[in-house]
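Quick entry between incubations.
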Amino acid sequence: MAKQTSKAPTASSKTASTTPKKVAPRSRAKKVVSENSFPTSLELNVTFDTYPAGAYTHKDLGLSVDDVLSMYRNMLLQRRFEERAAQMYGKQKIAGFLHLYIGQEAISTGTATAIKIGLDSIITAYRDHGHGLALGMSANECMAEMFGKVGGCSRGKGGSMHFFSKEKGLFGGHGIVGAHVPVGVGIAFAHKYKEDGGVSIAFYGDGAAGQGSIHEAANLASLYELPSILVVENNHYAMGTAVDRAFAEPEFTHHAVGYKMKAALVDGMDVFSVCKAMQDHVALARENKPSMLEIRTYRYRGHSMSDPQKYRTKEELESKKNEDPIIRLKAYILDNKMTSVKALDAIDDDVKDEVKASVDFAENSPVPDLSEIYENIYDESNYPYLA
Amino acid sequence: MAILQYREALRAAMTEEMERDSRVFLMGEEVAEYNGAYKVSEGMLEQFGPKRIIDTPISENGFCGLGVGAAMAGLRPIIEFMTFNFSFVAIDQLINNAAKIRYMSGGQFNIPIVFRGANGAAGQLAATHNTSTESIYATIPGLKVIAPSNPDDAKGLLKSAIRDNNPVIFLESEVMFGWKGEVSDEKDYLIPIGKARVARQGTDVTIVAHSKSYWIAMDVADQLALEGYSAEVIDPRTIRPFDIDTVVESIKKTNRCVIIDESNPFASISSEIAYQIQEKAFDYLDAPIIRITSKDVPAPYAKNLIEYYMPQAKDAYDACKRVMYVQ
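Done. Structure below.
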C-alpha cells in the first residue's frame, strides 16, 4: 500500500492543511519537492578514467599471440577492403556516398575483441564498413552491398551506409546523424528485458554529439539503468567542422556528467587501449551500469569521397599518420617477437586476396530483379497493397 | 456485447495482448503512475508492474527510438504519444527508422511496434495541438496507419496492430476517448487491418469518412433518410493499406461520392481517396467527388473560428444533395 509522507518540514507545515497530500510513488523512491533542502552551493568533483596509448600489453588483456595476430589481420582487412572500395568508387562500381573508416580500425577491432559476438549488439552510423568486418561479416557480402547486388548483406537495398547483420549483431549502418543512438539504447532495453546478459554498444561521431537524440538516449540509458555503452568516435571533424567550432564543451566525457553516467577517455590509435576500455565498460554494462566513452581517433581520408579536405593541413594529416593503429600493432608484434616480418607479409597477401575475391564476388553477383523493389517493405509478401 | 468507452476498449486490447505475450510492453509519458494522461492505461501499472508499464521523461525522440531498437531486438513495444502533435519531435524515428530499417536491412529486421495516441482536432487548443497526421504517416511505405471511429473497432484493430509484425501508427481521438459503444465479447477479437466497414447500406450516395468524421457521416445519412435519400456510409478504419475495393463496389451502386476528412485539405487522405476512385471507378461516377475537410489554415483558438474550421455536417449534407443533383 502506498505510504504517505509522515512529517512535513517546519517551513512548510504552516500551509500543510491547504496543500494536497503527497503520496509516495509506487515503483521507485523519489524526492518530494517540498523538502527544505535548497542548497547554498553546488559542487561537482568528477574524475574520469583514461586509457592512453601504450599503457597495456596483450597479456594485460588476456590475449594470446594468436588473438593479437587475428586482430592484426582484422584491422588490415578493413584497411585493404576500403582502399579497394575507394578504387571501385573511382571506377563507378560503387555509387552514392562512401565514407571510409581508414585510421579508425583500432576501435572496431578492439571492440569486437572485447564483446561476445552473437550475444552483444553493435549499432553505428554510416561509417560502418569497419564495424561490419570486425564483427565477422564477410568481405563478399559487404563489397556486394556497395555494388548494389543481391549478394549484398542488405540485398543491395542499403549500400555503403546501411550494413546490417542480424547474425553478427550489427543493427546497422545508419545514415541520419545521431538517430540510431536511441535505437541502440532500445536494444540495450531489450537485453535487460529479456535478461539475456547481452549489452548494446552505440557508436557515433563527434558531429552527432550535438544532436538532441544523443542526449535523450544518454538520459534514458542512465535513468533506466540499461546495459548500454554510448561511444563517441571523435575523429575531430564533423565533415569539415572541427570539434572546437561546434561544441561549447568539446570534452565529450563531460557530457556524461549531466546524465550520471560513468565516462572514460580512450586513445583510439591503440587497439589494446580500446580493447581494455571496452572490456571494463562491457563488464559494467553487464551489471546494468551504462557508460559513455570518448575514443579519440583520426580519419586519414576525407569525410566522403567528394571531400577536398581544406579544413586541415597536410602537416596535421602527416603527423597523425605516424600514429597509424595498424603500424603501431605491427611494431608491437615484431618488438615482442610474436612472428616474423615474412609471416606478417603473408597475412597482408592473404587479406589482399580476400578483398580481391570480394570484388569478383560483387561483380558476379546479380543485380536485384526489378520485382525486388517491392520486397522487404512489410513482413507480408502481398505488397504493393495499392496496385 | 459489453458497453465500453473508447479508452476502455483500447485498454482492454492492450491488457489482453500483454496477458497473451510477455514481449509486449507499454511506454510513454504518464502511462504508469499517473494512469495515463487520458486514462487509457488506468490500472495497467497495478496489473503488469513497472517493468512493462513504463513512464518516460518528455523525450519523444529518445523513447520512440528506444522502442524501435527494442522491436529490432525482439520485443513488441506499444509507444503512447500523449497526442500525435508531439510525434513531430520524434518523426525521424517513425519515418526514417521504424518505417525504413526493414527495407534497408534487406528484410533482416522486423519492427513490430505500435505508436498510438490521440490524433486530430480536440477543440480550442490552437494550431500546434490540433493536427490531423493521417496523410503525413500514410505517405510513408513501411508504415501502416489505422484510425478507428468507435470502441469496437478500436479494440479489434489495436489487438491486430499489436500482433502485426510491422510498425503501425494507431490514431485515436481525445474527443472520442469518453464515447461509449458496444464492443464484442469474443475472445481474441481481431479485426483485420486494411478492411473497411460498410456502416450503413444505401443506394443513392456513398459517404466515406473515418475517425470523428464518421459520426458526421452517420448524422448526414440520418438527415438524408428523412427526405427519402439512401446514403451508404463507409468507414475505412485503416488508412494504409486503404481498402479501395469496398469504396469502388459502393460507387458502382450509388455512382456518387462525398468524402469527409478532418485533415487539412491539401494532399490529404481525401485527396488520395478521390484520386483512387477516379482511377478505378471513373466510368461509374455520375458527378464529381466532393470533399468536406477542415479549412486550409492552421487551427485557430477562438471558439467560433475553430468551430468554423472543422468539417461541417451542413456542408456534407449539401454536398450529398449536390452530387445527387437535387439541390
